[in-house]
Amino acid sequence: MTWISKATTTFGLLLLAHACYSAHEHSALQAHRAASLASLTASQAGVATSLPIDIAIETVVATFIVVLGLVLGTAQLRPIRWRVWAGQIEREGEEAFKDADGEIARDYIGNPFKLLESRPGFVDIRKQRQEFADWVKSQ
């Protein structure tokens, strides 16, 4: 994560913590007010009030800022198809798989088709045919 995404996420979490604290204080004050009113008059036993709109807006904005910070800190998406990914590896090499800190991603395995390209037990018939043709011509 870059410092911008970390700062954005931290700011959003602070706002979210403040919204939670405000909601808790509001509910505690309403419970205290309801208890004191209940002791004075028995007719208003259950007074329920909703959360103020500023606390609800602060909660929504804080959640949006946290999500924005997390999205800013995510790595670049990889191609879905293996052949596209292998082509990107061949063209750009390890440079394409470095994160914002300059470190190579841990899921980087190199060319996924390297085993198929090396083929240790493969016999090259065309090469052997050419060598045989060269040998016949030289004889």
UniProtKB/TrEMBL annotation:
Subcellular location: Endomembrane system
GO BP term, pick one: protein folding in endoplasmic reticulum
Secretion signal, residue range per the UniProt entry: 1-22
Xref: Pfam families: MMgT
GO cellular component, one term: EMC complex
Family annotation (InterPro entries): EMC_subunit (IPR053279), MMgT (IPR018937)
UniProt keyword terms in alphabetical order: Membrane, Signal, Transmembrane, Transmembrane helix
TM region positions: 55-75
Topological category with respect to the lipid bilayer: Multi-pass membrane protein
Chief location: membrane
Keyword Membrane: yes
Family: Belongs to the membrane magnesium transporter (TC 1.A.67) family.
Protein name per UniProt: Transmembrane protein 32 protein
Lineage of the organism: Eukaryota, Fungi, Dikarya, Ascomycota, Pezizomycotina
